[in-house]
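Progress against Task 2.4 (sequence-to-structure conversion) is shown through the following example record, which the project officer requested during the mid-term review.
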Amino acid sequence: MLTYEKLQDLIRKYDVPYNHNIVPGHTKAKIKWILPAGIINAAAFEQAESFFLYFAEDRIAIFPVTGDWEGGEPLEFTWDEIQEFNVNKGFLAENEMQLKAGKLDLKLKISKRVVNNPWVKENNAFLESVNYYCK
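Structure tokens generated for the chain above:
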């Protein structure tokens, strides 16, 4: 489960400077199949992968996480390497981020709020206030 302690573990493990600049995110969930069954329909989704997204003056880092929100080795991009970067603000719970660097084209969802984790909302507000979503 995502907690503030898991965020602190990531910060300590990778010694990243923290100033409300890390938010959780995930891949878009895709529908694999739908089975119409009268009134109720059943659907199977591909497993969404979760990440910690780190924004800094010089780079973005994407930390993959395990099922228990343990951070793994980051994929890092300097702002100079990024050819295209866009964050579309969502209406309710998520923003959508697109990042292109070389042949890599990432589309991720950024969680704006997570139950029992007020730091997520605070960090998103900070990132918007310093225009990290507009680089």
